[in-house]
Amino acid sequence: MKFKPGDKVSFLNEKGSGIVTRVIDENLVHVTIEDGFEIPVVATNLIKTGTAEMSDNIQKAYQRLQSQQPEEPEDDDIHPLYVAHNDPMQRPDGLYFCLVPEIQDNSVSGSLEVYLANHTGHEVLFSLYQNHSGNWHGTEYGFIPEESRMYLGTIVRSEIEKWTNSLLQAVFFKDGKSDPLPPFSGLIEFKPVKVYKDESFQYEKLLRNKSIMVQVCKIDELKKKSFFEEKINEETIRHLQEKMNVNQTAEKSKKAETSFLDKHKIDDKIAEVDLHIGELVDNFTNLENSDLLNIQIDYFNKCLNQAQKERLVKIIFIHGVGNGKLKTAILKKLQTTEGIEFYDAPYARYGMGATEVHFYRNK
Fold this sequence. Notes:
This protein is α+β, with helices and mostly antiparallel strands. It folds into 3 domains: 8-68, SH3 type barrels (Roll); 78-223, Sandwich (Immunoglobulin-like); 258-362, Ribosomal Protein S8, Chain: A, domain 1 (2-Layer Sandwich). 23% of the residues lie in helices and 34% in strands. It is built from 7 helices and 20 strands. Strands 6-11-8-7-15-14 form a 6-stranded antiparallel β-sheet. Strands 4-3-2-1-5 form a 5-stranded antiparallel β-sheet. Strands 16-17-18-20-19 form a 5-stranded mixed β-sheet, covered by helices on one side. Strand 2 and strand 3 form a beta hairpin. Helix 5 runs parallel beside helix 6. The N and C termini lie far apart (61 Å).
């Protein structure tokens, strides 16, 4: 059954009624109930009750929400950005991946609206790919006008991992005389655990909402790239190889003096290790699932052993939810390790995908 704003509806599985105030898609609508609150409801759980009388509170809440709604562009998925051109604190021009909590007063609860924002003076033609088990799958493509954002969908937080390390490709166009930009291709990189932390969601002037904005492409950096590949002679190649050898020697010397675990420490005696494959490997597109799992398990064992050597008090492993194979392997190892206690990490900070290990002999 299709709904539109203004439809009077009743709930099938519970008592109550309301008015449809927003239609997200054919499966999800927002309903204003008698106490004036707007809630998301699955469309199959509603039935139209066009002749039923609604209370004055619902009618007033609906009219108030309608009066507050800005005029939408012709394309319901395209929304303008709120650009302040003279604001020195304005975000740099570029393409941004945006996660906007539907419940603005409680950022760590409810669903997330997903947008791709074009904060540039160019029109953008884009394609978006997600990595599933080492294979790229095209999931979205489209056209975004300058200084606009495109709505890509609404997701529950457990779906966030499929968006990490997605591949974005974009071509830029500007009418009239201009300096063309080279095409862009790059990953959308961010830590999934951020969607479970309230401090990750900041008020963004471009969206006029609290959100997480991940910069995917920076225009100033794109302008520095050449359209044509430069020819490199043998002398240049030899010079680059010599420089690489010097850098590798210096890097090995530096690693010998410091612990690889230092980059994970959030305190002198506490470390936080993100085991998502995108944090461990730069390019994993050609690896099998078993290879990815082995890389994660090996790094977990390496970090656990190093934490014991350095006499840390606590280490948190962020392993995600996924299919549970990584978590199962981690728990199996921890159950046979002496001198530790382990628990699920705090849900409010890490969600359901993290394990906290205490070294009680080091306290």
